[in-house]
Amino acid sequence: MGSPEEPRVARILLPQLKLDELLEELQARLDAARGTRDRVHSLLEAVLSVGRELDLEQVLHGIVEAAAVLVDAEYAALGVITPDGKALSAFHTVGVTEERIAEIGPYPQGHGILGELIRHPEPLRLAKISQHSASYGFPAHHPPMNSFLGVPIRVRDQVFGNLYLTEKRGGAQFDEEDESVLSTLAVAAGVAIDNARLYEESRLRERWLQANAEITHGLMSSGARTDVLALIAERAGEITGSALAAVALLMEGTGSLAVEIAVGMDAEAHQGLVLSMDRSLMGLAFARATPVTSADVGNDDRISLDPPRFGGLGPAVAVPIGTGEAGVRGVVLLAREVGRQPFSATETKTLQAFAAQAAVAMELADRRRDAEQIAVLQDRDRIARDLHDLAIQRLFATGMTLQSAVRFIEHEEAAERVERAVDDLDETIKIIRSTIFGLRARDGGAGTGLRARVVRAAGEASPVLGFAPSVRMEGLVDTDVPREIADHVIAVLSEALTNIARHAQAGRADVALETDGREVRLAVTDNGVGIPAEGRRSGLLNMEERARQLGGELTWTTPRDGGTRLVWRVPVSRK
Question: What secondary structure does DSSP assign to 500-536, as a single string?
């Protein structure tokens, strides 16, 4: 039988137990409220952090770091979606070391679970990734991942990319609160990304305007044409982050483009190259008067890769300088390294506007030069008129006067001197007439320069060769090489190509013409059978004789891969 005190003790303990339970529940709610407060505070800090940056790359990296901290995930990534909305164009990660990334290999392109979020841009929570129907495993060396949370990031109602979080720490699962926090961060991230892109676009626009101002100033201040073309290539390459930049201009009278300037990766392989209109990216852009892009310029069926020149290069774009209405003046080619992002539509449009402005500046410079040339020609005509109407007439009258005075001179030696003076006056009149003719002479028509003649000679040899030889020219070929030497160059080139067609059994020929103002050098290389030791050499003797007459020389060697390399060089005088 119990003590009479027991019921009273029980009545005392029961309320105490209920009070402890209430206190524990209150403590739990306080902890939850404190946790919510701390999480809200962390979310606000994350929003402020990602909104503080203006550099797009920094913004994206900051978003990934903030997302991993907010939902306590071991791994986090942000995948940027391509403009067509079908794959990933960039991938920013947190939690995986650079060494592990190198072991895994290329970043994902948007398949599996990542592609699921691309196809259906809605929040996705999974307890185990492998159990989803879209999952097909991970590549070798990839860390194990089970729990998953993904949310899309929208910028102005367009899906920019997706946040991917995996492996919540402590083995826990991502919950609704995690999803809500991450979705809130995604909204703030969209605003931050939009601001960063607007800032980046304004910076780019400013750089393009500065580049246009430099080019216009260079052209209008009588800067050298090659220097201005180099400036166009350099600025376009710098602003777009290209590994190679080149500018080609039309060679009048040939229907071909010549690469005047090339800067960057393997620029030497492009400098001076003569390109066809139908088998080159620059030629296609020129012929169509519209930009032409290539995802992989080194493996594009539209482009002839002979000679090889695109090693290590991938995405490329060729933009015409000028428009179809006003006439295309040339082409700008930009190429990025393999693995880099293709040129976007926005980049291409901006580059097209830059090229159009450059074309306007070139047109204005040409008009100014034409006006200056007209002024020079008019001045020459005035000088020629004055020489003819004044100087020659007075000299002729003086000569007549002296000639009539000879008969009054009795001293024989004095008379002879006067007659010699009359003869000198006649000779002087002839010289002045020749000078007048020279002042009034006009330059030859389009296509009469050495560049155009070399291209035509190579084109005329194509039918007998069975293929089109590649042509490369460097230096002031039309300016520094006199006409008489240019005639020898064409004769030697024609002889060399004819010999290749008749005897070499070659499948390729390369022509290189260079001048530095001191000498001109013509090199013709083929991959044929070479020059036989006992064969006829009349053609070589003719070329050698031409070089010797001009104080130069002809040499020939056998390249490592076979064939023949002829080098014909003679001195020239700089004008």
Answer: IIIII--S-EEEEEEE-SSEEEEEEEE-SS---TTS-
| DSSP character string of 381-414 | HHHHHHIIIIIIHHHHHHHHHHHHHGGG---HHH
Which pair of tokens denotes residue 185?
């961060």
Distance CA 359, CA 266 (A): 26
CB contact at 8 A, 166 and 127: no
pLDDT digits (tens, 9 = 90+) for 390-432: 677 777 778 778 777 877 787 878 878 888 887 887 777 777 7
What's the pLDDT at 525? 92
Q: Which pLDDT value is given to residue 335?
A: 93
pLDDT of 32 > 50? The answer is no
Q: Which residue would you say has higher pLDDT here, 45 or 460? A: 460
Q: What does the angle CA 262 – CA 263 – CA 264 come to, to the nearest 5 degrees?
A: 130
Please write down the long-range contacts of 6-14, taking CB distance under 8 Å and 24 or more positions apart: none
Q: Which residues contact 328 (CB under 8 A, 6 or more apart)?
A: 250, 286, 289, 320, 321, 322, 359
498 sits in which H/E element: helix 483-499
Which residues does 258 contact at the CB level (< 8 Å), separation at least 6? 248, 249, 251, 272, 273, 274, 275, 451, 455, 473
pLDDT at 537 over 50: yes
Tens digit of each residue's pLDDT (9 = 90 or more) over 462-488:
888 888 888 888 888 888 888 889 999
Residue 222, sorted as left (phi over 0), alpha (psi -120 to 50) or beta, turns out to be left
φ, ψ of residue 556 in degrees (nearest 5)? -140, 145
pLDDT at 21 over 70: no
Q: What is the pLDDT of residue 198?
A: 83
How many CA atoms lie less than 13 Å away from 37 in the CB half-sphere?
A: 6
Q: Is the pLDDT of residue 41 over 70?
A: no
Residue type, 453: R
CA-based torsion, 539, 544, 545, 547: positive or negative = positive
Least confident of 174-183, 425-434, 498-507: 425-434
pLDDT at 567: 94
CA distance 472 to 307: 10
Q: Which residues contact 350 (CB under 8 A, 6 or more apart)?
A: 204, 205, 208
* H or E stretch at 189: helix 176-220
Q: CA-to-CA distance for 41 and 45, rounded, in angstroms?
A: 6
Segment 558-570 mean pLDDT: 90
DSSP string, 409-473: ---HHHHHHHHHHHHHHHHHHHHHHHHHHHHH-----TT-SHHHHHHHHHHHHHHHHTSPPEEEE
Label residues 430-458 b or e (16+ Cβ within 10 Å = b).
eebeeebeebeeeeeeeeebbbbbbbbbb
Angle subtended at Cα 113 by Cα 110 and Cα 119, rounded to the nearest 5 degrees: 65
Angle between helix axes 176-220 and 6-52 (nearest 10 degrees) is 10
- Identify the CA nearest to 307 among candidates 42, 8, 512, 35: 512
Query: What are the C-alpha distances in Å from 200 to residues 85, 89, 117, 317, 537?
Result: 22, 18, 27, 21, 65
The tokens for 476 are 């002031």
